[in-house]
Specification:
Blueprint lengths: L8 H15 L6 H40 L5 H14 L12
Helix pairs in contact: 1-2
Amino acid sequence: MALEGYDSFEAVKSRLDEIVDAVGDDDLPLDDALALYEEAVALGLRASDLLEEGIEARQEAERASADAGAGAPDDAVADGVQAAGDAADPASDGPDPARS
């Protein structure tokens, strides 16, 4: 099976588990063990590719989410600006005892 056919970590791990079981057999010929080792290395590289793809997809989703929210005011920022304005207002009650 082509490595691109392993489209999830679960599929890669499942095959790696099969390889571990196979190489644990003392009767396995050395050539077969070497072929399984090479497959395991390739599967490790495929897992790395899947990880990078997942990271890129997550970053893209976060950028899209941030871009979608860029036009609307952030309530936390608005609240922070209001609080800063209240603190600078001489008519306010004075410093907040909880902040001291």
